[in-house]
Amino acid sequence: MSSDSTQEIGRRIAAYRRARRYTQTALAAASHVSYAMVRAIERGARRPSDEVLEAIANALEVEVARLRADHASAERRIHRALPALSAAIAGYELALGPPTRRPEELADEINTAVGWRLAAQYGRVAAVIPGLLTDAIRYVHAAPGAEHSDAARMLASAARTADAIAFKHGAHDLSARLIDLMRWAADRADDPLVQATASYVRAETFFAARAHAAGLVALEQAIDVAPPPDERTQAAARGALHMRAAVLAGRAENVDAADSHLAHARRLGEQVGREGCYLGTAFGPESVRIHEVSVAVSLGPDHADRALRAAAAWAPNIGLPAERRSGFYIELARAQDWAGFPVEAFTSLRMARAAAPQHTREHPWTREVARNLRRFHRSDAESLTHFAHWAGAV
After folding, report:
1. Average pLDDT for residues 244-263, to the nearest whole number?
2. Which residues lie below 8 Å from residue 198, measured CB to CB, with a gap of 6+?
3. Do 46 and 93 fall into the same domain?
4. Domain end residue (candidates: 44, 69, 94)
5. Is 394 a residue whose pLDDT tops 90?
6. Residue-range definition of the domain harbouring residue 113
């Protein structure tokens, strides 16, 4: 049987249940499935029918596919998409004919793919993004003057969505090319907010190269030319740049700059007032708090206590993008591991997996923490070993 085994389905249901702070009794009541059935499914003793699995998924507010997803199948789709993406952007500056989709269809499909990106459903993104990117490039070249800016915005969004699977799956050269395409499209959109978003995404190239000081300079230059934060979207765009600059400063061991950018991000988060997704980037008070943890972890093991204080007695709202929630728990697990809290670190890793399995599985810090826990801590050894195998840590 594939990775979609009875035991794996049970583990996923249990992980999502714990993430929602449901007991087995509460899940049984919410899904109208018997308590005995829920217990048996989570133990791997019974395989749920399609109807039962759908009822449980509805109660947990996740897609059925998230409970029975075949990770190997998703990985195959992603790795097949990478050469297709490379081919799609090989001649992006050339006009190679009209798009196959009407503009409104293209816009709707790109927006759907953006939603999948934010939910860390990379397998679904991989299945559609090469074709969407091809049509978005063709639309930029074919669009009449009145539509050109909108076409360029679509292309920037499609390129960013494609970059998510390239960057997170280690194809950093392809990621850099996709970011170049995003910047090319942002220039043609002639929209400072799209250009600010492109600068935000471009920071990935500095993370990949560990050129943190240079990346900080690039983001500070982007902040200098970003639109003033007079309205919510402008404030969110500038705040996102400050959040990412704070992390780069942390990795560059520039504590003063990290604290300064965090302070700016915090003020802009308060100004925005509510968490939201602005131009494809989550920003608001909760995102800023998550980045406070990220900055502390970026500063290294000596700052583990700072990370734990930032995360104390708090959990990200279920409404935040899955990728951001998963990233929070991965970084928290790293701090907990450094601080000598192995049980808490493993719990955080499982919370990360419940939020965004593919993102968690591909994250190098997941493997680092899982390896450390197996090496130095033997409690919960069976489930920890299973998790480590799942994450590729052994």
Report:
1. 97
2. 156, 179, 182, 183, 185, 186
3. no
4. 69
5. no
6. 70-189
Would you state the pLDDT for residue 1? 36
- Answer yes or no: are the C-beta atoms of 226 and 235 closer than 8 Å: no
Long-range contacts of 88-94 (CB under 8 A, 24+ apart): 88/130, 88/133, 88/134, 88/137, 89/133, 89/137, 89/159, 89/177, 89/178, 89/181, 92/137, 92/181, 92/184, 93/184, 94/141
Within 13 Å of residue 222, how many CA atoms lie on the same side as its CB? 28
Among 299, 324, 359, identify where a domain stops. 299
The confidence band for 95, taking pLDDT boundaries of 50, 70 and 90, is very high
pTM of the model: 0.81
Q: Which residues of 288-300 are buried (b: 16+ CB within 10 A; e: fewer)?
A: bbbbbbbbbbbbe
Query: What pLDDT shows up at residue 172?
Result: 94
Q: Is 277 helix (H, G, I), strand (E, B) or coil?
A: strand
pLDDT of residue 103: 97
